[in-house]
Amino acid sequence: MRTQNNNTNDVQTARRALCLRPLPRIAVLVMLGLILSGAMTHEFSGYPELDAGGLSAAADMGPADEYLAKITAEIAGHCSCQPPADFASEEIVASAQVQQNGSDKRVAVSTLVRGALSDQMRLLMARKADLERWDGPARARFYKWFGTTSPQARRLIYHRIHREVTLNRRFSTANFRRAVPSRPGIFAFVHPGDPSKVFVDRTFVAAPPLGENSRAGTIVHEMSHFLIVGGTKDYAYGTSDCERLARFDPSKALSNADNFEFYVEGAQ
């Protein structure tokens, strides 16, 4: 959930269970030797591309074609990104008009959403380019919000960005709903297991299109909560708390939706 209020959520971690056969003693010793020598690296998240090996060239940053195909197929398999059968019971934003920033001019929320989706794509592609270039400024921006520049962290965020790009291309205004009831200070929220809908509130409408705490950044934040994108949590809100989280707990910063949002927004 994107909010102006400080809040924390309990972390829930899903782990993959492995069934291992007992190994002969000599095999255990050989494997231990390989691990200690660096000849064997640990693979995680179910994708060999996310290994603990180093990344020295920008060309190494791009995932293999089959990995990108796997991401796209996974999103397509879990999310048709079309309104569900019961959507008539919810108010889609295309039907709503609001007064923006206290003016008399009424703005169609669907227009704001379309602009936010377009701006989100531009931001994501800019950060993707940063991660591929990986020069001094790109590393400094990454370190500010995640507290690390490790190869694993770089790959993790790169792949999360690719998932959001894939989802963005499938989204339209039909995937956005009006939050009911409206609550002060709330930008938007989602149900992480249902990547077909984003519920937006009045603070989203009043937010700037780009920059810190923007409409585009709000969609970045909310999509990162989807389990098929990143399953991020809300450990901390706001730039000060998120910078502190990056300094003292990089692992949580990498999983915190606001840290990811501020990184993608290019917040200073």
Summarize this, please?
This protein is α+β, with helices and mostly antiparallel strands and 268 residues long. It has helices spanning 25-37, 65-78, 109-133, 136-146, 151-170, 202-206, 215-225, 239-248, 250-254, 257-265; strands at 2-3, 97-99, 106-108, 176-178, 186-189, 198-200. It has ten helices and six strands.
Layout of helices and strands:
Elements: E1 2-3, H1 25-37, H2 65-78, E2 97-99, E3 106-108, H3 109-133, H4 136-146, H5 151-170, E4 176-178, E5 186-189, E6 198-200, H6 202-206, H7 215-225, H8 239-248, H9 250-254, H10 257-265
Parallel strand pairs: 4-6
Antiparallel strand pairs: 1-5, 2-3, 5-6
Helix pairs in contact: 2-5, 3-5, 3-7, 4-8, 4-10, 7-10
User: Structural class, please?
Assistant: alpha+beta
| Residue-averaged pLDDT | 75
For the biggest β-sheet, the strand order reads 1-5-6-4
Our Rg estimate from Cα atoms comes to 20 Å
Q: What is the count of DSSP helices, taking H or I runs of 4+ residues?
A: 10
DSSP E strands, number: 6
CA-based shape: globular
Q: Gap between N and C termini, in Å?
A: 22 Å
The major pleated sheet works out as:
4 strands, mixed
Helix content: 40-55%
Strand fraction: 5-15%
Order of helices and strands: EHHEEHHHEEEHHHHH
Low-confidence stretches: 5-24, 26-65, 77-89
What can you see in these coordinates?
The protein has helices spanning 25-37, 65-78, 109-133, 136-146, 151-170, 202-206, 215-225, 239-248, 250-254, 257-265; strands at 2-3, 97-99, 106-108, 176-178, 186-189, 198-200. The model is unreliable at 5-24, 26-65 and 77-89 (pLDDT under 50). Helix 3 runs antiparallel to helix 5, helix 3 (109-133) crosses helix 7 (215-225) and helix 7 (215-225) runs antiparallel to helix 10 (257-265). The chain is α+β, with helices and mostly antiparallel strands and 268 residues long. Strand 5 (186-189) and strand 6 (198-200) form a beta hairpin. The chain contains ten helices and six strands; from the N terminus they run E-H-H-E-E-H-H-H-E-E-E-H-H-H-H-H. The chain is globular and about 45 Å long.
